[in-house]
# Entry
Amino acid sequence: MPEVSRRTLLRAAPALALLPMAARAGVPATEEVVPLWPGSMPGDRGATIRPETRDQSHDPAHPDRWMTGIARPVLVVHRPERPNGSATLIVPGGSYTFLSYDNEGISQARWLNAQGVTAFILKYRLPGEGWDRRADVPLQDAQRAMRVIRAGASGFGIDAARIAVLGFSAGGHLAGSLATCHAEQLYAAIDGADRLPARPDVVGLIYPVVTLAGSFVHAGSRDALLGAAAPLADRQRRSVETRVDAATPPIFLLHTSDDGLVPVENSLALHAALLAAKRPAELHVFDEGGHGFGVRASASLPVANWPRLFSAFAARKGVFAA
# Structure
């Protein structure tokens, strides 16, 4: 990311009004909620959207909540006891039809906090819930999230140039889209935060959906994002592997060869595109693990080591503490 100057951050000061008092004062809190949009949102056509949460585990001690009806996107902030200045925007998956909030949100925040990383879980809008320009809505939220985090960096106790993004499954597609389309203007600027770059400093994509046009596409995510009748041009435009360029940040890719939902070819295709563009990239393909394991992979499986591998990659890129 280009250096964020003090002057640029000062221009973003109006956006600090979005932050809760605890965040502005730097007071430690277990969980804080930060709205992304101060008023009307791009794509809002006044549809009635009712929040709903379903627990797939039926075990209060180990919830596995799936969330729909995201009427107002927010950042849910989890601060570590001993922050080291680094931060991660967490993007849960769910085929663009729900958010896997515990498995790919809360569980990730916990291990990141244990390493001193401030975690921001993104509750982003789902494209099929009544928004105009449905394919742009999740990426609008992701771009805005990065800018709001940077605008509030001082209050959050983080370095504005040490922000990772970590995405899972369809959330991996969104995180990959942020990595490759961070400079694409998808909404009109609303305050000083929108003068700040949306480019993440390092990216982790875990069993990600990548292509929306290839033969190994996850059709459910494609249709939820674009609509079932989307033309080929739209599917190609929103395929992450087609958008890699010289400004794409370093990307860490993790997949398993036995993933029966999102084929490993997704990560292979993006890795090939990154190498062709001479962008920093690291790919790990494990034999077993399936799909959607989050950090719950059995300790007996090598794939369970992926958080350590990602942390080492982010440290080598100067984002996490070494």
Observations:
- The first helix runs from residue 6 to 11.
- Confidence is low (pLDDT under 50) at residues 1-29.
